[in-house]
Amino acid sequence: MQYRTKEEQVADFLREGIISGRIARGSRLKQQEIATLLNTSITPVREALKLLAAEGYVLGDSFRGATVAPFDLEASSEVLSLRILLETQLVRAAVEKVTAADIGELRTMAAEFASAFDAGDNEGARAANYRFHHRMFEIARMPQTLHFVQILWARYPFDLINRLHGRVSRAADEHDEMLAALIAGDAAAAMLATREHIEAGFRELRNSVAGTAT
């Protein structure tokens, strides 16, 4: 794993919390509470909130606190297309650069995702899902592309998608397909599995919303 500053560690903790749904949309984030929880000073928390505000995860004044940003379901379709474009490129690069140690890490993360689901820990499963994707994309060593992907993640309704009945189980199977293609060194299969994984979650959410409206 690459070295991370305290600011980056705090930012990643908060991103994971927001994407997993552990930190609800609209929640107020207070610097002192976060600093106490993570056993750090206010400064890295303040800087992390500034970073998350720039990425679109939070709104407000980081000095007084910040609010987790809501998402716009209407805009999610555009975000979907951009995610597919960028994340498939990251996966293609990861296939070219992955090492045996990387594969070991990803297998462990995929197992943590499945174990959390089997234990009924849906929040833990959603957090493990974030870690799996983030680690896979780190392997590509394309930090600018990953940065833009994280901005897109801020605008995507992961928390709603991962609460859909049976979605976590299906996502675990989709992770297995992505990982198998990565291990096989098959870039085309890895890109296709990534695309199908992204599209499946959004399709299930859209169908759920349509069903609720009827």
What structural category do the secondary elements indicate?
mainly alpha
Largest sheet: 3 strands, antiparallel
**Secondary-structure element series:** HEHHEEHHHHHHH
Low-confidence stretches: none
Fraction of residues in β-strands: under 5%
Number of strands: 3
Rg from C-alpha positions?
Answer: 17 Å
Number of helices: 10
Termini gap: 47 Å
What sort of overall outline do the alpha carbons produce when their principal axes are compared? globular
What's the rounded overall pLDDT mean? Answer: 89
Estimate the helix proportion, in percent.
over 70%
Give a short synopsis of this structure.
This protein has helices at residues 6-20, 31-38, 42-55, 76-97, 100-118, 122-139, 143-154, 158-161, 167-184, 187-213; strands spanning 28-29, 58-59, 66-68.
Structural features:
214 residues, 73% helix, 3-stranded antiparallel beta sheet, 3% strand, single chain, mainly alpha
Walk me through this protein's architecture.
The radius of gyration is 17 Å and the shape is globular. It has 10 helices and 3 strands. By secondary structure, the chain is mainly α. It has a 3-stranded antiparallel beta sheet with strand order 1-3-2. It has helices at residues 6-20, 31-38, 42-55, 76-97, 100-118, 122-139, 143-154, 158-161, 167-184, 187-213, and strands at 28-29, 58-59, 66-68. The longest helix is centred in the last third of the chain and has 27 residues, at 187-213. Helix 5 (100-118) runs antiparallel to helix 9 (167-184) and helix 9 runs antiparallel to helix 10. The model has no long low-confidence stretch (mean pLDDT 89).
